[in-house]
Design brief:
Blueprint: H1 2-18, E1 30-33, E2 38-42, E3 56-60, E4 65-68, H2 74-85, E5 92-96, H3 102-105, H4 108-112, E6 117-120, H5 122-142, H6 144-150, E7 160-161, E8 165-169, E9 174-179, E10 189-193, E11 198-200, H7 220-232, E12 237-239, H8 249-270, H9 275-281, H10 296-312, E13 316-317, E14 325-331, E15 336-344, E16 347-357, H11 365-377, E17 383-395, E18 398-409, E19 418-428, E20 431-440, H12 445-459, E21 463-464
Helix pairs in contact: 1-2, 5-6, 7-8, 8-10
Length: 465
């Protein structure tokens, strides 16, 4: 904790001693003057002590100040407030949360204490309330050094919601806060100063950083539409979520990243590459040297989650319950696989279906045992599976054989745990469908039985599209 405070103190001292970057040097870090009324605080880097790379800023009117994003911790927020006070003594009347991620909102209470009204989308408020405890539990358990930075953070929810577009007069300067639909998250806002042609993009644009595409509220198609709208506004200066400010060309770079990664990932799925294969193989052109490359696997996973079902396009469907998400897939309509998972209070559930052409006229129990044996011999499998018995299931209106048993993680995964499974197969129109169901509840056998029954009921709804 002592070293963390020293780093922040040193960073702030350097920031104030150096003053603001000149307007013609907008690509710097620290406090950057974009215009005589508009300032950005550009993070020095992606570490937690540097605020996870998240940028913020403020706009100074003749009467009041508007701040964009409150940063990761109270110490980071106080650093931002000190930067404001190095420029003006005017009251901070507004704070805009561009989205809910902690590095943009956990400093809210510092600005509320200054009298600021916090503005955001309703989705941002909901997700702040939902995810703040989860994030803090994660830091407490996995990153205690980071938890020391944020343990004092108390949730400060928005005071007022932005619907579509809000015009704010700070006195001599007009600010526009706009929502164009879900993109990076469900509740992304931009903040622009039309008279200066300056825009703060929030999470919509990153510069020299891999963006975060993994949010559950993300909408990739509308993200591209929103980038088009930003570009059409012809900004002269763009302040991204992460990385230095610059010109409008970075909006195009962001679009290229999204389009190229989606194209590479969809191609990998069609070529039969599983998610783990794709993570090892895919690199986005033009991103050598990008910071936060740990996000790339999550971005690839997000595209699998949102696009894979349409790509593999099995000729059958099932009534997949709400909450299940696609976690892996490969191939196409002729031959392929898809996996759904859900983690909830009922434990972990995994449902995987693979398919391929066959000339077989029926399925017998030995076919399932053969599949289990081949899985056991595969170097890519995660589980060691033990057969306990067999039974009959109804799948798509037909009675078919099934095997069941227990499983545990393979030693090579360095993960402990296990549970129960069920496996069945079905023939439909010259295609054999192999369906594996698996659950882990932490040794609650009754709950495991219930989870397997739930998935077997899902499988019973198998039908042609």
């Amino acid at each position: 904790m002592k070293s963390y405070r020293w780093v922040l103190a040193a960073a702030l001292a350097a920031l104030l001693a150096a003053g603001c970057s000149r307007q013609d040097d907008i690509g710097g870090t620290g406090l950057v003057r974009l215009d005589e009324k508009v300032y950005a605080l550009i993070a020095y880097g992606p570490s937690s002590t540097e605020g996870l790379g998240a940028n913020s800023g403020f706009i100074v009117g003749d009467e009041s100040v508007l701040v964009i994003d409150s940063r990761f911790s109270y110490s980071h927020a106080r650093q931002l407030l000190s930067a404001v006070r190095s420029v003006t003594a005017l009251p901070v009347k507004y704070l805009v949360n561009t989205h809910y991620h902690p590095d943009h909102v956990w400093g809210n209470a510092i600005f509320r204490a200054e009298g600021a009204m916090i503005l955001a989308r309703p989705e941002t408020s909901i997700e702040m309330e939902r995810f703040t405890p989860i994030y803090k539990d994660y830091y407490r358990g996995r990153k205690p050094d980071v938890f020391e930075m944020v343990k004092e953070v108390e949730l400060a929810l928005p005071d007022s919601f932005v619907i579509d577009e809000l015009h704010i007069d700070l006195g001599g300067i007009d600010v526009v806060v706009a929502f164009s639909g879900p993109a990076h998250t469900a509740g992304d806002l931009t903040v622009s100063v039309p008279s200066k042609k300056i825009v703060f993009t929030g999470g919509l644009v990153s510069n020299g950083y891999h963006p975060n595409m993994g949010d559950q509220g993300a909408d990739f198609a509308n993200w591209l539409v929103t980038l088009d709208k930003l570009e059409e506004s012809n900004p002269k200066i763009v302040v991204p979520c992460q990385g230095p400010a610059g010109g409008a060309e970075m909006i195009g770079f962001q679009r290229d990243y999204l389009v190229n990664l989606a194209g590479l990932t969809v191609d990998a799925i069609r070529r039969g590459r599983t998610l783990s294969d794709a993570i090892l193989e895919i690199r986005v052109p033009g991103t050598d040297g990008y910071k936060q490359d740990n996000l790339l696997p999550f971005n690839i996973q997000a595209i699998y989650r949102t696009r894979a079902l349409d790509v593999v396009a099995p000729r059958v469907e099932m009534d997949i319950p709400t909450g299940f998400v696609v976690s892996d897939a490969a191939g196409g309509p002729e031959a392929g696989m898809i996996q759904w998972i859900v983690q909830s209070d009922d434990g972990y559930l995994e449902l995987e279906m693979s398919w391929q052409p066959t000339s077989r006229g029926d399925i017998i129990l030995e076919d399932i045992h053969d599949r289990i044996a081949r899985y056991g011999g595969s170097k890519d499998g995660l589980y060691d599976m033990t057969v306990a018995g067999s039974r009959k299931l109804i799948v798509g209106g037909e009675t078919v054989p099934a095997a069941f048993g227990s499983w545990k993680y393979r030693q090579s995964t360095r993960t402990k745990g296990g549970g129960t499974w069920s496996w069945t197969m079905s023939l439909r129109d010259g295609t054999v469908y192999s369906i594996r169901m698996l659950t882990n509840t932490g040794d609650d056998r009754k709950l495991e039985e219930r989870n397997i029954t739930t998935m077997e009921q899902v499988v019973s709804t198998l039908r042609n599209k």
